[in-house]
């Protein structure tokens, strides 16, 4: 009776019914297959690691370095190149400034002038500003002060507003700030405005420079005196008493030669030192990058050394600072 019955496979439920019968999956849907549309290309040539790299590591990896890629490769196995942490060489980086070693503090010396006690010669180098020549816009002057070993001693920067510089040009009042290797202002030089429209022999028209060291404490003055033939200055102490004198050449515009300003004692006979404006060819002719050599005795009072140093800048502004010529058309 039952032998004629043939077992059949139960009918599969429809999609709607199957979805109701399937047990819910608590996991989220699987992410899409990112490689579903990837079609592998033909095999390429094998790449072999160069000699010196360990097998199994990527090229450029150095297991001795903490970073993934080594900064540089040694030139030889005997003396590899080594650098301190953080002091890696940078291409086209300007050379670092070499400063003169700091001297010991002295009791009777104004702070910051200890360098001058060890020197009998300093160089004043003005920065060249090509933008000033092109635009005819007067900018603040900057100077490097160096010793004979080309070590930096001070940095001098002018602090004058744009209107004053471009309205009064070489006659402008200015403030020069002298800084040491730590950026501290150790000396200030101030030039007040003097009208030159009146008679040249009038005392109120003569140029003057006040030197303060430290800033706020006056140590002396540089006074300009009228003379028919040459530049004449007197160096005074804080009480405006004459201590030294400076006599310049008959012509400060000599082409092809140095201009020497002799520093003499108050009697005008004994030679103390000199301020020499060096001739540097085209740069000197344009007057935008002056170079001065200052000489004084090693045992000279340090305040007088600072006064001779300050007189150099008054001489520069009065005789060698060239204002850009504006076209009249």
3D structure, described in words:
- This protein is an alpha+beta fold.
- Helix content is 13%, strand content 23%.
- It has helices at residues 15-21, 130-135, 162-168, 282-286, 302-320; strands at 121-126, 142-146, 152-158, 174-179, 185-191, 208-212, 218-225, 232-237, 242-247, 259-265, 271-277, 291-295.
- The protein has a 12-stranded antiparallel barrel.
- The longest helix has 19 residues, at 302-320.
- The termini are far apart.
- Mean pLDDT is 76; it is low at 16-21, 56-79 and 81-89.
- Keywords: Calcium, Lipoprotein, Palmitate.
List the helices and strands and how they pair.
Blueprint: H1 15-21, E1 121-126, H2 130-135, E2 142-146, E3 152-158, H3 162-168, E4 174-179, E5 185-191, E6 208-212, E7 218-225, E8 232-237, E9 242-247, E10 259-265, E11 271-277, H4 282-286, E12 291-295, H5 302-320
Antiparallel strand pairs: 1-2, 1-12, 2-3, 3-4, 4-5, 5-6, 6-7, 7-8, 8-9, 9-10, 10-11, 11-12
């Amino acid at each position: 009776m039952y032998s004629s019955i043939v077992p059949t496979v139960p009918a599969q439920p429809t999609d709607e019914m199957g979805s109701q019968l399937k047990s819910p999956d608590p996991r989220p849907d699987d992410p899409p297959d990112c490689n579903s549309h990837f079609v592998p290309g033909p095999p390429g040539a094998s790449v072999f690691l160069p000699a010196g790299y360990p097998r199994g590591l990527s090229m450029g990896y150095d297991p001795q370095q903490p970073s993934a890629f080594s900064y540089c490769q040694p030139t030889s196995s005997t003396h590899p190149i080594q650098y301190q942490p953080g002091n890696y060489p940078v291409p086209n980086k300007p050379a670092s400034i070499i400063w003169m070693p700091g001297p010991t503090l002295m009791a009777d010396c104004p702070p910051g002038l200890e360098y001058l006690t060890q020197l009998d010669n300093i160089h004043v180098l003005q920065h060249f500003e090509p933008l000033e020549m092109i635009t005819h816009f007067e900018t603040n002057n900057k100077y490097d002060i160096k010793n004979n070993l080309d070590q930096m001693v001070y940095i001098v920067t002018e602090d004058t507003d744009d209107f004053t510089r471009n309205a009064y040009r070489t006659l402008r009042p200015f403030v020069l700030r002298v800084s040491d290797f730590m950026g501290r202002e150790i000396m200030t030089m101030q030039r007040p405005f003097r009208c030159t429209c009146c008679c040249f022999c009038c005392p109120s028209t003569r140029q003057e420079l006040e030197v303060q060291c430290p800033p706020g404490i006056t140590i002396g003055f540089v006074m300009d005196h009228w003379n028919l033939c040459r530049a004449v200055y007197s160096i005074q102490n804080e009480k405006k008493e004459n201590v030294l004198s400076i006599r310049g050449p008959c012509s400060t515009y000599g082409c092809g030669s140095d201009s020497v300003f002799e520093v003499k004692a108050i009697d005008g006979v004994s030679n103390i030192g000199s301020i020499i404006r060096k001739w540097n060819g085209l740069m000197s002719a344009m007057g935008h990058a002056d170079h001065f050599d200052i000489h004084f005795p090693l045992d000279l009072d340090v305040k007088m050394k600072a006064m001779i140093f300050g007189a150099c800048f008054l001489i520069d502004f009065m005789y060698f600072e060239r204002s850009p010529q504006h076209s009249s058309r």
